[in-house]
């Protein structure tokens, strides 16, 4: 209860040092409480949105024998990695926490979302069933099932499941984001905006809430509002790879601010060369400029230490543009092995298979066709493809 009270004070913007001063006498009088001051420091960073220092502090705590394999700490660490856009480590920590406590429900909505975004829909379905067996009176099982529906493109069902989760817990940020994303993809943008704004009110330090709102503004061609919001996020949460990329995303929508977008993306990639969203947006910019060789180099570099469906698919698109058909097929195949539901990779592969043995004339014609639709078309997308791109890249969360 005392720890809950400490978290409550920190959430109300009471400074960490002030909270820690209240515990000095207790720490000195009770044995084995030397970890408490570091714990307070860690969660003070969490509540001020300083994800990097929060992660480092919790990692140092986790190494102490008393708190090793502590489920609460692992859950917090998983959530922080998620906020910092590090999906791989976030999933890893959620899995560790789940193995230690098979009845864990807290944070499983975020875990389910991350699995769904990676195309692991069978795992999401299994997770949802397991959570429902534990309890159907928490928001998390409904959100996980909603993520499965959303990424299966059953938006009406995702909307219903998100609404059910909100009924059970009106403060569930993940439920609000699920419902907002479903409404957006169903074309009900104004309703979606209300849900994203409520999510921002509840979690002002979570970038994915702002991403959802900005995506709505861009979908309704409200570029000015999107720019104001992106600038506010940049000033509020600081100049990190995620906020730089978010601002660049809005700048890419206006021809006047293309150069600014390029500068912002270069800064983001200097900070974090592995940040997938920044790589995707830089590739989009290079595609517009028809700098395919530069794009290929960028994507190969990004894929050297990680494997991601979208990056493999875009690399396939770029290889098509420079007539490297065999390797393009390989990249589309890798993308599909990572996410069998990725429609654009499937379309790219099918085009390549049709062109395996055509006449020279047909080859030329198809290459022209791909330069017109495979590049900007695949990156910018038609209406239905844009929705899918939003599913993959823009739905509250950072990769």
TrEMBL record:
<dbReference type="GO" id="GO:0005680">
    <property type="term" value="C:anaphase-promoting complex"/>
</dbReference>
<feature type="compositionally biased region" description="Acidic residues">
    <location>
        <begin position="362"/>
        <end position="383"/>
    </location>
</feature>
<dbReference type="Pfam" id="PF07719">
    <property type="entry name" value="TPR_2"/>
</dbReference>
<protein>
    <submittedName>
        <fullName>APC7 protein</fullName>
    </submittedName>
</protein>
<feature type="signal peptide">
    <location>
        <begin position="1"/>
        <end position="16"/>
    </location>
</feature>
<feature type="region of interest" description="Disordered">
    <location>
        <begin position="347"/>
        <end position="399"/>
    </location>
</feature>
<keyword id="KW-0802">TPR repeat</keyword>
<dbReference type="GO" id="GO:0016567">
    <property type="term" value="P:protein ubiquitination"/>
</dbReference>
<dbReference type="Pfam" id="PF13432">
    <property type="entry name" value="TPR_16"/>
</dbReference>
<dbReference type="GO" id="GO:0051301">
    <property type="term" value="P:cell division"/>
</dbReference>
<feature type="compositionally biased region" description="Basic and acidic residues">
    <location>
        <begin position="347"/>
        <end position="357"/>
    </location>
</feature>
<dbReference type="InterPro" id="IPR011990">
    <property type="entry name" value="TPR-like_helical_dom_sf"/>
</dbReference>
<keyword id="KW-0677">Repeat</keyword>
<keyword id="KW-0732">Signal</keyword>
<dbReference type="InterPro" id="IPR019734">
    <property type="entry name" value="TPR_rpt"/>
</dbReference>
<feature type="repeat" description="TPR">
    <location>
        <begin position="173"/>
        <end position="206"/>
    </location>
</feature>
<feature type="repeat" description="TPR">
    <location>
        <begin position="309"/>
        <end position="342"/>
    </location>
</feature>
<dbReference type="GO" id="GO:0045842">
    <property type="term" value="P:positive regulation of mitotic metaphase/anaphase transition"/>
</dbReference>
<dbReference type="InterPro" id="IPR013105">
    <property type="entry name" value="TPR_2"/>
</dbReference>
């Amino acid at each position: 209860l005392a720890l809950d009270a400490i978290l409550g004070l920190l959430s109300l913007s009471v400074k960490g040092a002030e909270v820690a001063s209240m515990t000095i006498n207790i720490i000195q009088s009770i044995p084995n409480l030397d970890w408490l001051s570091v714990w307070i420091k860690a969660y003070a960073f969490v509540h001020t949105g300083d994800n990097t220092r929060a992660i480092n502090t919790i990692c140092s705590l986790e190494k102490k024998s008393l708190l090793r394999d502590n489920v609460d700490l692992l859950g917090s660490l998983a959530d922080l990695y998620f906020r910092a856009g590090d999906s791989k480590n976030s999933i890893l920590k959620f899995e560790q926490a789940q193995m230690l406590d098979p009845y864990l429900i807290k944070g499983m909505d975020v875990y389910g979302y991350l699995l769904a975004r990676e195309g692991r829909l069978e795992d999401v379905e299994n997770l949802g069933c397991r959570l429902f067996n534990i309890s159907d009176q928490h928001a998390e099982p409904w959100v996980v099932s909603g993520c499965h529906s959303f990424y299966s493109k059953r938006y009406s069902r995702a909307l219903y499941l998100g609404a059910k989760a909100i009924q059970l817990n009106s403060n569930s940020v993940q439920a609000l984001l699920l419902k907002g994303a479903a409404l957006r993809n169903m074309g009900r943008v104004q309703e979606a905006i209300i849900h994203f704004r409520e999510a921002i009110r509840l979690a002002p330090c979570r970038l994915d809430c702002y991403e959802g709102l900005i995506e709505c503004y861009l979908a309704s061609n409200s570029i000015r509002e999107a720019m104001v919001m992106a600038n506010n996020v940049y000033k509020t949460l600081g100049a990190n790879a995620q906020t730089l990329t978010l601002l660049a995303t809005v700048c890419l929508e206006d021809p006047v601010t293309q150069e600014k977008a390029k500068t912002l993306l270069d800064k983001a990639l200097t900070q974090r060369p592995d940040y997938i969203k920044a790589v995707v947006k830089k590739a989009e910019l290079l595609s517009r400029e028809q700098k395919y060789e530069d794009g290929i180099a960028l994507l190969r570099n990004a894929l050297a230490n990680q494997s991601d469906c979208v990056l493999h698919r875009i690399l396939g698109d770029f290889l098509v543009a420079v007539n490297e058909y065999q390797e393009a097929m390989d990249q589309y195949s890798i993308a599909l092995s990572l996410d069998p539901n990725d429609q654009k990779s499937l379309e790219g592969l099918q085009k390549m298979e049709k062109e395996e043995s055509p006449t020279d004339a047909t080859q030329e014609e198809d290459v022209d066709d791909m330069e017109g639709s495979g590049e900007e078309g695949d990156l910018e997308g038609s209406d239905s493809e844009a929705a899918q791109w939003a599913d993959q890249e823009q739905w509250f969360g950072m990769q």
